[in-house]
Write a structure and sequence with these properties.
Elements lengths: L8 H9 L5 E4 L5 H13 L4 E5 L1 H5 L12 H6 L8 H4 L2 H6 L1 H7 L13 H8 L4 E6 L13 E3 L2 E8 L5 E2 L1 H10 L11 E5 L8 H11 L4 E5 L8 H4 L7 E6 L14 E5 L3 H9 L10
Helix pairs in contact: 1-2, 2-12
Length: about 290
Amino acid sequence: MKREDGGDENEIEKSLISKKPKLDLSTNSRQSKLIHKVILKFIRSKKHIIVIIGAGVSVDAGIPDFRSPKGLFASMKSSLPSNYSVEDIFDLQTFLDNPALFYSAARSFASIEKAKPTAVHRWLQLMQPSLQLVITQNIDSLESELSCPLIYLHGLLASGTCQNCSQKASKQTMFDHYRKGKVAYCQCGGVIKPDIVFYNESINSDLIQSIQTASKTCDLLVVMGTSFSTQPMTGLLRWFDHCDVVVLNQTSVNLPSRPIDRLSLQVLGSFRTIFEEAEGDSEEGFWDGV
């Protein structure tokens, strides 16, 4: 089935079906739109999908990443005393000893409150009922409106917990204090800690167990916007050896070795365009014509 743009959908599909250990398709090629469609068709064929979301998805929503030269860490650094690093204020013990350091730098989080979901999030919502679980490493809660099971692996900024009485604080309360750069206190007088996972703080073991349980029935793992450079995600990948993996990321990801009969496909470039094109090509939804 030849197309005017020179693409050959059948050949691309055969490449996917052949399940080569490493198939790297560049979204910069002139066949990119056709490749995007084939990838969406492949994803649509699966029935038990788990999606892992990283910072790249939030960047596409206008939220700065953490470590780039113009990212959140750089912005937060300017409000800190010279003897503190940004990493210091995300340390659990430092927060407990001096929460004002964190909150004074947290003004940089204020813009996150106004961020809106992207085409990626709309696509995830339309994947029901095949979407088994979304695991997000982001703390901005852009995925909060999804109706599928959702795990915030690193917590979220939009809620907090009193360190004295365990009373929960609302999104409005937390962002009011981020904007002001002032410590949030509970009515009991206790300090409210944002519900994010700080350095030297353990991730809830129940969340890890939930991921392991869900992985047993997964037939496709979709990874978007993350390079797997941090724990615990690097270690969790071993639970997905039995299913196909599709990675959508700006740069190549070093995946663990996988069985030869399992697809390990990486699509490099702006993965957002895949879903924007799918959305724009159909009046009724992402999957028309796919």
